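FAQ
Q: What does a multi-component entry look like?
A: The components come first, one per line:
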Amino acid sequence: MRDPLWRRYRRFWGPDVRSDVDDELAFHIELRVDELVARGMDPKAARAEAWRRLGNVDALARTCREIDGERLTIERRREWLAGAWTELRVAARQLLRYPVLAGVAVLTLALGLGATTAIFSALYAVMLRPLPYADSDRITRVTETFRGGETSVGPGQYTEWARRARAFEAIGAYNPTTFNLTDGTPERVRAAFATHGFFRARYLAPALGRYFLPEEEQPGRDRVVVLSYALFEQRYAANPRILGQTVPLNGEPYTVIGIAPPDFPVASYGELLWIPLALTARHKATFSDHWLAVYAKRRPGVTLAEAQRDMERVSREIAQLQPDDMVDRSARVYDFRSDLVADHERNLTVLFGAVAFVLLLSCLNVANLLLARATVRRKETAIRAALGATRGHIVRHFVMESLVLAVAGSVLAFFVSKLTLSILLRFAPQGVPGLQHAGEGPMTIVFLAILSLVIAVGLGLLPALRGLRSVQATLRMGGRSDSAQTGRDPLRSTLVVAEVAVALVLVAGAGLFVRSAKRLNAIDPGFDTAHLITARVSLASARYPDEARLQRTYLDFVDRLRRLPHVVSASAQSTPPLAGGSVGVDVSVYGQTYAPGNQPEGQYHTVVPGYFETMRMPLRYGRTFTASDDSNAPRVVVISETLARVLWPNERALGKLVACCDDGANRPWREVVGVVGDVRQFLTRQPLADLYMPIEQAPPDSWAWHANSLAFVLRTDGDVAEVMQGVRRSVAATDATLPVYDAWTYDDLADRASAANRLSMVLFSSLAVLALVLAAVGIYGVLAFSVAQRTFEMGIRIAIGARPSSVLALVTRQGMVLVIAGLVIGLALAIAMSRLVATLLYQVAPTDPVTYTGAAALLVAVGVLACYMPARRASRVDPVTALRA
Amino acid sequence: MADRLELPQGTLETLILKTLTWAPMHGFGIGRWIEQASGDSLTIEEGSLYPALHRMEKRGWIEAEWRQTENNRRGKYYAITAEGRRQLKAASQSWLNVVRSVGRVLDTSKQPS
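Then the predicted structure of the entire assembly, as tokens:
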């Protein structure tokens, strides 16, 4: 029963569990036999007895082998880890011997990783972070459409939707507004009317109390309010006793029934309280006015497309009931999340693409550095391989080195990303949903960790493979020096070409935004923004019952403001430019009829006489308003050049009669007495067709359009803050409960209008500068290394009569060939990608030739500079020294 | 031969560790020594001895080495490690505690109140 002899040799190749266990048990048998024989047993019987005692020997051996197998696995793992740890320490020590190289590599990686991580965390917060709402993937926004374009929803349509739609388990309407909140310091707060269904569609459990009940949507029972957590904290010191108390809104008491949780709402309007949307019976039968936003929650399992079909069916049913009001109208559904971020998605993805390019660039650069080192250390690698290091060991060695770099880089990158993010958050335009959560939670760290691991492995494999490939060639060279090599390295040259290409894409991108910003700064808004401020007041309470009282109060305010120190002139307007939208109205012309749907539209403004003078808008024809354009005087209007052109393309506008805004019975014709220059209501959009009416002749309905509010405009010649204080004091002297809000200088407003573009410009420019530096370092690195390797060759060239200038040209040419190749690829890449930024640019074509020429020229200049330094060194090689080496 | 006793779970390993504190030993020797030291009142089954040895080796309490015996045979000798000594100390401590406590209860003559 002895083991066959050959089994013993299995152990030659390393530990062998099978023969170990077999041998051990065989040894046991031998000793037992000896023992039994010594007691006088017959050897044959003794052997049988020994085996019997061992019991089921196969089962025993199997158990032992299994345990041993587990032990070996554990030991191997432990050994590998110990080896890796040793390698890691060796790698760290070796890198410390080249502190400049290691420092440059770590810094490069930190910048690339940090910028990418920062933008990722912004992107994650806005586009990927789960919304706090329950079942947020089923939340839907529903709009009406008119001829394919999106419009707000009519109360009649909403009522029918709620009754007829099958796709939704909850549906609610919403309408933003503002209120004067007058307990304590009067404050103008953003608010919203909402139905109980709004809170069910976008459900998040209330922090305190409850949301609205359906019966609280009846007029008369609707004096209840839900406060946002922000208002609860800031104004009421988070005191839960506010629940059940009343707060005065526009002078009327509302009972606080609930506090929304901190994360509510996610949408961008930023309202601070909600009151019930009480639709009257007349509202519910109105299909011609469209002013609601509608949110719904789809039933489980209902897709967006199914909901869309359902809403189209509902729209057809409504069209049968109300054919006149449903011409060319239907409905459309949007996924809540993607709709919420639609405006920012492009900006963020482009930005993320840009930083990803920078990261790629920094990786290329570090790869280049490591490759250079791998070339120098080729002999070392070869010796390691010859001494029995396996491929795995060598790869591990290089990966450990890049791991040390990547870990150091990512630690630094963490701080870089924090810094970048805080800058980003400070300069980001207002109202990007979820952006304030950027950098929160573990996702940022996870992203950074995974990214740096991937980079570490990638960066380590490249030089490792290089090291492995040349083992034999290197060893064959023996002790001879490396100087016979050409110093040309196709892999590293490719990396340089890639770097130049990537840098060109970024520089061209930055160029597009810079030119865009220039165009934005050159926009003439149509009035003088210098030393101009605006502030708004809303006379929304029982104290101002009719328009006569409103007119009197505003005229008094303006008179008072004009007498303030440092105020050159003052006036007021319902919807001044750059400070928000205006109200579109249909305009009729005396003696003219328009086909349905072709009625011209004007933007309505109520103004206090002196407005055009304060704004310094040019008067083209006729006159502006005076104090004598009062309620007893003939009705007059002033229109903008664009409206004049729309209404009377070929005639003089002065003296023509127009009407608008009043209900059918009372619709006086108004004479055009003046034409003023166009202004831009929104800085980046074309001027609209404006219609101005003097305050004392404003149609009664118009006060409701801007919530009884007017915005003062003041031209100053002193300290803006001081004048603003004067405005507040002056208003408070008349009515201490009136909040002054939307107070801005026009410089601020103009800045805000171009904030998004400026942010893109600043970010892209910093990335482009980074890219240029990285590309320059890359080119310089490759050439300098090549020159150092070719010192011997240069020495010979100079010794046999090459002039320094021709050596200079030789090296420069070598570098510039790479730069040009990179430029060509980069240009193609940049043009191919440029349409992604098209919508983010202002009046610059995405293929703007000036930008691309400029970017290419800049890179050529940087390339020449980066080539020149190593080339000059090559031309100054001392042949004697070089040849002796 | 005296009555054979069953060993409670885990005790065999403690006994093996104790045995190895004298000198490195092979499996057969360990079994013999424990039997002799217990006055032949304990029987060590091979079926449990060898798995126990291999498990202890996996846990790092003992380590194995192949050695030549006087009879010119190759035997697998086990030696206790530092980890094993720590384990032995802890195990014998708790074993003695159990024995002492159980003994005190069995020896008591007072009736519970």
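Q: Is there any commentary attached?
A: Sometimes. For this entry: The longest strand of chain A covers residues 168-181.
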